[in-house]
Every structure is written in structure tokens, then in C-alpha cells.
């Protein structure tokens, strides 16, 4: 009886550890995706030409800036 309980407890701990490590991997993958997305957007913004005063005023009047 004690051996069955011990085996059951070990199985539960192993399942918990496996699930925890799997969740940790998913979090790291999402962080890498976010970093890549931010770098892509940053490069797009930096490569765009500067807006003129007229363009900025136009955006302000439309409520986009």
C-alpha cells in the first residue's frame, strides 16, 4: 500500500515538473517572438522618411497623432 502511494506521488511530481518545463519553454518562445516583432517595427520606423510639418498637422487634425 505504501509503495503504491509512493509511486503515485512520484508520478504526480514528474507530471508537474514536465508541465512546468513545457510552460517555461512556451514563455521563452513568446518572448523571442515579441523581440523579433519589436525589432522589425523599429527598423520600419527608422527607415521611413521624416514627416514634414504639414503632414504632422494633417495627422493632428484627423486625430491620429
Number of helical regions: 2
Total beta strand runs:
0
| CA-based gyration radius | 26 Å
Order of helices and strands: HH
* Domain tally: 1
Largest sheet: none
The helix fraction, in percent, is over 70%
Assess the beta-strand content as a share of residues: under 5%
Low-confidence residue ranges: none
The separation of the N and C termini measures 70 Å
User: How would you state the average pLDDT, rounded?
Assistant: 84
**SS class:** mainly alpha
**Shape verdict:** rod-shaped
Descriptive account of the structure:
The chain has one domain (2-62). The radius of gyration is 26 Å and the shape is rod-shaped. The longest helix is centred in the middle third of the chain and has 46 residues, at 2-47. It has helices at 2-47, 53-62. The chain starts with a helix and ends with a helix. With 65 residues, the chain is mainly alpha-helical.
Key traits:
single chain; 0% strand; 65 residues
Question: How do the strands and helices of this protein lay out in sequence?
Answer:
Layout: H1 2-47, H2 53-62
Short description:
Helix content is 86%, strand content 0%. The chain is mostly helical and 65 residues long. The longest helix has 46 residues, at 2-47.
